[in-house]
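As noted in the main text, all predictions were made from sequence alone. Below is one such record, for UDP-N-acetylmuramyl-tripeptide synthetase.
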Amino acid sequence: MFKESLLDKTLYRIKRLIPKSVFDFFAPYYHAALAHAGSIIYANPSKSLKVIGVTGTKGKSTTVYLISKIFEGAGIPIAAIGSLGFKIKDKEWPNTLKMTMPGRFKLQKFFYEAKKAGCKYVALEVTSEGIKQKRHLGINFDCAVFTNLHREHLESHGSFENYYKAKQELFARTSNVHVLNADDKNVELFSKFSSKRTIFYGIENGDLKAVNLDLKPDRASFEVYGTKFDINFGGRFNVLNCLAALSAAAMYGIDLPRTKPALEKIKDIPGRMEFIQKEPFGAVVDYAHTPDSLEAVYKTLKNDCHKLICVLGAAGGGRDKWKRPEFGRIAGEYCDEIILTDEDPYEEDPEKIINEVASGIKLGKRITIVLDRKEAIKTALDKAEKGDTVVITGKGSEVSMAVAGERKIPWSDKEIVRGLLK
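Prediction:
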């Protein structure tokens, strides 16, 4: 649906001709003007929709996905935008943009199409980079959801303070409904903004709490106010994602008994601790791209397998380089065998990225370096025995890899794993 338009190409060419120092100075005005222009061109479609914006470091994509499935299960027409894909009512297609939150014109066109299709709600993944580039302007947000906050995108924003201030902008601009993770240590950074209605959720704290948790890598159960949920995806973090979605649904009159069948119908979250195979050994694909996410995935899987074998790359070339030795350290702590490989290098030397990941791994760990990602995955699967788990992180449900020359090549960890397991 989202093909690069002539306008997109023209603006990109003009931008390339302007000296970077000049463009950086005028960038906020440029981005803001484009955002408002997009809204005007498509007649401000979000004014006729209730837009639910979800922000945070982790869990945004899953929460948007869960909200869309809950509303759909309740018979409410909804559209959704996130890194897991796009949805307008019952039509769904993948996000191939390598951009979680699309550009201004694409966003406004999507809202226009959603409105035309009869949707009443849109669940939108709102990123700090999107806000920095003013993509949120011209959108009428009705609800803001906060999942959690950790260090991320520091090279882009310049500091952790700039990073969370970008995310705060969503709450400053949303006055009706706020949904907040009461268990997160940084929740006060977001709870200070006023709204007509606010709901806190959590496992330890909150208005809407999960109790009687039973957590497995591939499933979980929990209760909320007497309604028991048995979901087909595991981990404590996914219980919190469910609570975020349940809280947002509650704010729009969808009660817990109505949400239960919708959540329990979901077989897995695409690319989020997704089991491609469970026997004789587990094969899991996950998007984890922050140290906290990586540790949560490894910790969850480690408790239920004999040997944990990981295929690991790093954050995209040129981005958040501080993560690389941290990824190595975490892999060294939880994984029995580590295979380091290429992952979205962009213009950076893949071997340099891998060596920086390796620098964080403690001595004595079994490390194999295989630059070719397909061969790396094959190596991991060949090493696995009954009762082991192979986990491939970094790309999740993505369908392309960013390489040198500003190219995107077709790629799917899931399809590679499926093909190798045949």
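The radius of gyration is 21 Å. The first strand starts at residue 50 and ends at 55. These features were considered when defining construct boundaries for the mutagenesis experiments described in Section 2.9.
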